[in-house]
């Protein structure tokens, strides 16, 4: 093969793996806080692994590193908290600063980037000291971030020669003073660079967000990872149009955001222990993601908190990615129909990038209708229905008020309207079922050296 042919093949390979923010199938998963380790301190085998460990397949597209938690710490520089992975006590700090020396992560980050993923630094977190006193301080901080993590130079770069792909703003307290000045100055630096850089944010779902809402309206963000959990507008209220408000965020994206092409992600907990409320199993989030994708052009994908929780929860990330891509998520995994995922506590010690999948279908049905209900399918527990769909159950005809999944006709959810016995006259509307099950993917997890007690932050 000629050198020119080899060069062309290399270009095609890079193009195939290139990150594309304009897609509606991207998956963002936070890494850095070892959330699973914080809630499962005795299950050290499933604690957070190095970031490159999670880049061996095509499931995750965006890795925000969590967190840069203090804007102004020792020596006038920020500090970062990476839980069990890197800390000043274990890895030392750059002289005169509170920045841990995490340069050993440079090759890990570059491995992920070479696989077509982007890696960013997330600023803030639930307990972060992320604020400015004025615009001048915000503008100065832009240069600091550029020099420490992006395209600038410094002798105190925490990740060495790894050049991150942008920043994420996870601001959950304080004032918005200086944010617009900071991001405007940072965007100017990014535009002068020799690669693409991205600015994202992680607002909570109540609109407008209390801590970054004004900034979202003033600065052209590339994507927002809306936290649809720990709030009334969370995923568990998807079938309540008074609470679920993705449409509000879609309207913001199209009519308010300075970037009309901004992407809106559904932010979700990756397991029941990852958040106080809002977790839904992978079957349910698959349906929610697919329906939202079909309804809103601003939809960009799903964000998960966090990687350690997703991996221990039967590869929740893999199930979500497969739902987004229709089964072409990569890495060999696939969705299956089985019970909701639970935490894995006995991993193997053999590393593999080709997961095995198991598939079982557990379906609850009732006898099909007769008479005026002829042709109407019996209610099924593993089928998603939308408003107006009709089913038969216990000899009656039932009509769905709105989207529903696994809610029994006549049950406490109140989702179904009883139209009467099947012997009565009724106009039948046959649903288009969407059976989707949980993914149950088994991966081997390699042995790693013992790690320290995690110091978690939360999203």
TrEMBL record:
Gene Ontology CC annotations of this record: extracellular region
Top-level taxonomic group: Eukaryota
Alphabetized GO MF terms: carbohydrate binding; chitin binding; endochitinase activity
Ranges of residues in domain GH18: 25-327
EC number: 3.2.1.14
Compositional bias of kind Low complexity: 336-365
Family, as annotated: Belongs to the glycosyl hydrolase 18 family.
GO biological process entries: chitin catabolic process; polysaccharide catabolic process
Reactions catalysed, as given in the entry: Random endo-hydrolysis of N-acetyl-beta-D-glucosaminide (1->4)-beta-linkages in chitin and chitodextrins
Organism expressing this protein natively: Hydnomerulius pinastri MD-312
Top EC class, one word: hydrolase
Keywords: Carbohydrate metabolism, Chitin degradation, Chitin-binding, Glycosidase, Hydrolase, Polysaccharide degradation, Signal
Signal sequence segment: 1-18
Protein name: chitinase
Sequence segments annotated as region (Disordered): 327-365
CDD domains, per the entry: ChiC_BD (cd12215), GH18_hevamine_XipI_class_III (cd02877)
């Amino acid at each position: 093969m000629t050198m020119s042919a080899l060069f062309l093949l290399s270009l095609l390979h890079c193009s195939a793996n290139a990150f594309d923010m304009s897609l509606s199938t991207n998956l963002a998963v936070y890494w850095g806080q070892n959330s699973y380790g914080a809630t499962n301190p005795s299950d050290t085998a499933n604690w957070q692994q190095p970031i490159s460990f999670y880049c061996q397949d095509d499931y995750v597209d965006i890795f925000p590193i969590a967190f840069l938690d203090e804007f102004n710490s020792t020596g006038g520089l920020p500090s970062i908290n990476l839980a069990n992975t890197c800390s000043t006590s274990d890895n030392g700090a750059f002289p005169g600063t509170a920045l841990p020396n995490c340069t050993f992560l440079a090759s890990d980050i570059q491995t992920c980037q070479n696989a077509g993923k982007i890696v960013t630094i997330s600023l803030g977190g639930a307990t972060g000291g992320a604020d400015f006193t004025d615009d001048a301080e915000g503008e100065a901080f832009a240069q600091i971030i550029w020099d420490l993590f992006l395209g600038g130079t410094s002798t105190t770069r925490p990740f060495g020669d790894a050049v991150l792909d942008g920043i994420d703003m996870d601001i959950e307290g304080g004032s918005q003073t200086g944010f617009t000045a900071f991001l405007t100055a940072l965007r100017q630096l990014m535009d002068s660079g020799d690669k693409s850089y991205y600015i994202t944010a992680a607002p909570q779902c109540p609109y407008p967000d209390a801590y970054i809402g004004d900034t979202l309206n003033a600065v052209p963000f590339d994507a927002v990872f809306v936290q649809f959990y720990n709030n009334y507008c969370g995923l568990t209220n998807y079938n309540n149009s008074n609470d679920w408000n993705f449409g509000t965020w879609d309207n913001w994206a199209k009519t308010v955001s300075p970037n009309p092409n901004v992407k809106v992600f559904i932010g979700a907990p990756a397991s029941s222990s990852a958040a106080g409320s809002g977790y839904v199993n992978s079957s349910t989030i698959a349906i929610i993601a697919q329906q939202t994708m079909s309804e809103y052009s601003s939809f960009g994908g799903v964000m998960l908190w966090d990687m350690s929780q997703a991996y221990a929860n039967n590869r929740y990330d893999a199930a979500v990615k497969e739902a987004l891509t229709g089964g072409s998520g990569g890495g060999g995994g696939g969705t299956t129909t089985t019970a909701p995922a639970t935490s894995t506590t006995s991993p193997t010690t053999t590393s593999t990038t080709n997961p095995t999948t198991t598939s079982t279908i557990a379906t609850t049905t009732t006898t099909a209708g007769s008479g005026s209900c002829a042709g109407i399918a019996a209610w099924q527990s593993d089928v998603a229905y939308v408003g107006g769909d009709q089913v038969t159950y216990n000899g009656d005809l039932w009509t769905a008020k709105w989207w529903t999944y696994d809610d029994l006709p006549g049950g406490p959810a109140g989702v179904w309207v009883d139209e009467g016995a099947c012997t009565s006259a009724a106009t039948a509307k046959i649903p288009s079922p969407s059976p989707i099950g949980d993914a149950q993917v088994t991966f081997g997890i390699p042995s790693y050296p013992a790690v320290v007690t995690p110091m978690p932050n939360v999203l």
